[in-house]
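Supplementary Methods S3. Complex input for the glutamine-bound model.
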Amino acid sequence: APLVGVLALQGGVREHIRALEAAGARTMLVRRPAELDAVDGLVLPGGESTTIDKLMRLYQIAEPLKAKIAAGFPVYGSCAGLILLADRITDPALDAAGEPQQTLGGLDIVVRRNAFGRQRESFETELVFDGLQTLPSQDPGQPAAAVHAVFIRAPWVEKVGSSVQVLAQVSPAGSAPQAEKDSVARIVAVRSGKLLATSFHPEVTGESRIHELFIQMIRGDA
Ligand code: GLN
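Predicted complex, serialized as structure tokens:
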């Protein structure tokens, strides 16, 4: 089984470890550049993208990780992790010195932080998720597409480049307050090459198929 790292600087690390193991991977916490070279792929957890960004630079893991991503290293980012994989943020936070937050990049997307609104910072909805139909765990008799998705101060993807595949959207009829207001479907899951990202948190609901898809991507089977 592939050895999958979870970046363990801040955020929901434990939940990803559990979901990866449920999906059949071996796991390892990653904090240092040398640990990056030991794993076959990496999960960037949810949390606070500004904090994770700062800690990645402090631990000098940001530059080696960028280089690995450019060379095709598989990475899955959920929520703050999606923000960290985005080439551009519409509204980057500024730190006390006025310096904007940075991302690793790699995904040709523009992302909007906290896009679904702050009053109701969290919501749950059912999503149609493309790409789960052919997973080994999938019972051919059961519909594969439905995923129960939890959004916590979640970003959405505002623009995607031509290399990016859209895997899931929150429809205006869904329970996202902002999406209802806009009457526009919002992109909440994307893939490009070996990079996978979701606005929501499959790791908190006992859902392991998104992690299984990522493991298939690492293996070269998806
Ligand atoms: N709003 C957070 C950020 O900008 C992400 C929230 C999350 O990961 N649950 O980093």
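Residues 209-219 form the longest helix (11 residues). The CA atoms of residues 121 and 153 lie 5 Å apart.
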